[in-house]
Structure formats: C-alpha cells, structure tokens
C-alpha cells in the first residue's frame, strides 16, 4: 500500500509538471521533448509495485492511457487539449490519470436510465464477482476451459466495476457528465460493434486519435479502402503490444505473443467483416439473435485459445485470489475490532 501511494504521488507530481510545461510551452516538438521524462517514468512505475491489482490498474491507467493522452496533449490534441484554454488543474489530473472522458451534452449515460437501476446493476455485478471467488476453490475439479471461462467473466466484471467506480468518483467530485466505458458488450452484433462501440471504450477513444486516424493519413496514398484496412490492423497491433506489456508487468514473464495473435486475428476478421458489410450494403443481414451468438462465440473461442491462457502462465489469478483472501481477513479483523469497541 505504501509503495502504491508513493508511486501515485509521483504520478500526480509528474502530471503537474506537464501542466506547468503546457502553460509555458506551445504544443509541438519542444513540449514533446519536455514530456519525455514523464513518458519514461510512466512506463516503469508498475515495476515498483507488487500487488497484482495495483500493478494492473497502474499499468492500464498510467503506462497506457495517460501516456497516450499526454502524447496527444504535447501535440495540442486529445482529451486534455482545449480549443480555448488548458483545462483546470483538478480536471486535467482526473482526465490524465483516470479512464474517463468528459461528455459535454446533457445526455445521460447511466446504465438502466436511473441512478437506482444503475446501482442495482452494479450491485448484481459485484455480488457475482464475490460469488466467483468462492467458486475458484473448486478449480481443480473443473475442466481447464471452464476455469478459463470463469476468468473471462471475472475480467469483465472486475473491469466494469473498477471503471464505473472511477467514473462515479470523478463525477461526484467534479459534477461533470462522463461517457460510459462499457456498453453491454455481451449484446454486440459484430466484431466492429464489440470493439468499436461496446468494449472498454476508454481504449477505443484513445486509440482512434493516436493510431487509427494518423494511419489513415499515412496510408491515404493507397486509397480510402486500403488506408482503412491498414489503420484498423495497426490499431489492433498497438492494442496487442500494450496488452503484452501489461501482462509482462503483472506476470513478470517474457511474452509468448499469444495475446498479440489474439488481437491480430480480431483485427483481420474485423477488416474482413467491414469489407463484407460494404459489399453487401445492407441487402442481406443476419437476425440480431444469431449475430449476437456468433459474435460472442467467436470472442470466447479465440479468447480461450489465445488470450486467457496467459493468466495461467503468469499465475496471475492465483496471486489475485491470494490478495482477495488477505483483504477478506483484514476486513474480518477490522469488523471484530469495531464490534469489540461498540
């Protein structure tokens, strides 16, 4: 806990430094050069942590998202940039180091439409997550694919709860309306729908301006069709590399590139899907229920094959369960102390 607090204090100090630099230096190469020490620190900061959850959160929030946001900010673009002036420091810090995106219209994005329904939605998800930690006691009696499927559900529940809690905290402190980070990915009707509109939109929102759009411009000489294909593939390649880096932080193992192949397969299949949609041009379409089953099935099959085995290879889930048990023991001890006092 001490190392986590120390690391994040240095992260905040680093972001304050970039904020001051941005007020003194116009966007461009000079600002980019002055940001380099921060980029480097943000890439190494997860190595100073040992708690698996702290490593994962810091690697995702800081090494990936914050670095990409600061890269755009150095060029005067992205969520940290403004057409009129630099964001106020508290909002700058929140948007920099947390996976949130400010939404400027009055539209509400809460799950279920009301705060009460949203609370029920996340309460159910939290209850399922707690229940799953109990099921893991019987891992040795379950087939490996069943265990990996549990891991997939666990990852989704944990990610959505972490991102929702982060957004709720920022919304309560700032009063700003924030866009959602998940949009019921289990209802996706295609890979394009899954990756572009439903799954972890914090990543989608930062990869588009940092990778997809620059690649469109770079390959524009090849024509709009080929430039889009190469831009989509490049986006999935960068996402794969960043996931490999995060798993290196969490598991301490050199990559075997299966995770990268997961994203390459999805990148290739997504480009084929887009091309087929354009060719068909709405003349023929699968029923919604069928397309949802096929999309979910493809994601799960490729995930079980290429993505999820890394959690066994790096003993990531075993370490996470040990941390849950330790947290539960601390909570029980704290409860007993409170009970004895009152």
Automatic annotation (TrEMBL):
Keywords: Acyltransferase, Lipid metabolism, Membrane, Transferase, Transmembrane, Transmembrane helix
GO terms, molecular function: O-acyltransferase activity
Localisation per UniProt entry: Membrane
GO cellular component: membrane
GO terms for biological process, alphabetical: lipid metabolic process
Pfam families membership: MBOAT_2 (PF13813)
Start and end residues of each Wax synthase domain: 179-264
UniProt main location, coarse: membrane
Transmembrane segments: 6-25, 32-49, 86-104, 119-136, 148-170, 229-252, 259-277, 289-311
Membrane topology: Multi-pass membrane protein
Protein family: Belongs to the wax synthase family.
Protein name: Wax synthase domain-containing protein
Species whose genome carries this gene: Brassica campestris (Field mustard)
